[in-house]
């Protein structure tokens, strides 16, 4: 089940958010080796986890197994404040553009091969549904370039913002990915019956 947490309902999600921060730590620090994010309490939290962030959690059997965070481009976010070198032109900003960050899925529930896992599909569908309901139609993503084809196949319109650079040992590319109802229909089709 997908849960959307904002500053308005965060008080009712303390346990789930703690699990989400621990999942982030497990994926980004322990698996990917991003040692600068390491914390003694085993939770990955940064300065962007403030009242402007929208957290999306996917739970199964009462546990958080998937997570992603949305940040408005009109406020400080990763591309503007941490990774501006990924953008060679003017940075995309607007109320219809949000940044998609900290996407992670528990190891046993990730996609295999070319298929999106049910958790990944639910998270991506959540972005599109949530966005379309709020006049948001574009996300900024800092990602491995290998995701380009997958996003295009899911009917996102992807535009690179610069060339890939190696960050934390991984090739990283900043893009905008625009979506509409056709994107949502493709995600629903990929989900199957």
Structure description:
The protein has a single domain (2-191), classed as 3-Layer(aba) Sandwich (Aminopeptidase). The chain is built from five helices and eight strands. The chain has helices at 14-31, 78-81, 118-133, 147-153, 181-191, and strands at residues 2-5, 54-60, 63-72, 97-105, 138-143, 157-160, 165-167, 170-178. Strands 1, 2, 3, 4, 5, 6, 7 and 8 form an eight-stranded mixed β-sheet that branches. Strand 2 (54-60) and strand 3 (63-72) form a beta hairpin.
A few lines on this structure:
With 193 residues, the chain is of the alpha+beta class.
Tags for this model:
193 residues, alpha+beta, Aminopeptidase, eight-stranded mixed beta sheet
Note the gap between the termini.
17 Å
Helix percentage: 25-40%
What sort of overall outline do the alpha carbons produce when their principal axes are compared? globular
How much of the residues is beta strand, in percent? 25-35%
Q: Tell me the CATH superfamily.
A: Gcn5-related N-acetyltransferase (GNAT)
Overall SS class: alpha+beta
User: What's the β-strand tally?
Assistant: 8
What is the architecture at the second tier of CATH? 3-Layer(aba) Sandwich
State Rg. 16 Å
Task: Name the average pLDDT.
Answer: 91
Number of helices: 5
Q: How can the largest sheet be summarized? A: 8 strands, mixed
- Write down the CATH topology: Aminopeptidase
Task: Describe the secondary-structure layout.
Elements (H helix, E strand, L loop, with lengths): L1 E4 L8 H18 L22 E7 L2 E10 L5 H4 L15 E9 L12 H16 L4 E6 L3 H7 L3 E4 L4 E3 L2 E9 L2 H11 L2
Helix pairs in contact: 3-5
């Amino acid at each position: 089940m997908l849960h959307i947490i904002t500053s308005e309902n965060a008080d009712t999600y303390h346990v789930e958010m703690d699990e989400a921060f621990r999942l982030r730590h497990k994926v980004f620090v322990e698996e990917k080796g991003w040692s600068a994010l390491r914390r003694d309490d085993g939770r990955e939290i940064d300065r962007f986890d403030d009242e402007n962030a929208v957290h999306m959690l996917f739970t199964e059997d009462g546990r958080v197994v998937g997570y992603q965070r949305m940040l408005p481009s009109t406020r400080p976010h990763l591309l503007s404040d941490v990774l501006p070198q990924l953008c060679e032109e003017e940075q995309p900003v607007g109320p219809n553009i949000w940044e998609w960050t900290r996407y992670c899925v528990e190891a046993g529930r990730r996609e295999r091969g070319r298929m999106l896992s049910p958790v990944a599909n639910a998270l991506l569908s959540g972005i599109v549904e949530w966005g379309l309901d709020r006049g948001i139609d574009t996300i900024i993503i800092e990602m491995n370039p290998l995701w380009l084809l997958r996003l295009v196949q899911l009917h996102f319109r992807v535009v690179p913002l610069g060339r890939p650079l190696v960050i934390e040992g991984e090739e990283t590319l900043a893009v905008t990915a625009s979506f509409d109802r056709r994107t949502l229909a493709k995600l629903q089709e990929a989900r199957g019956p």
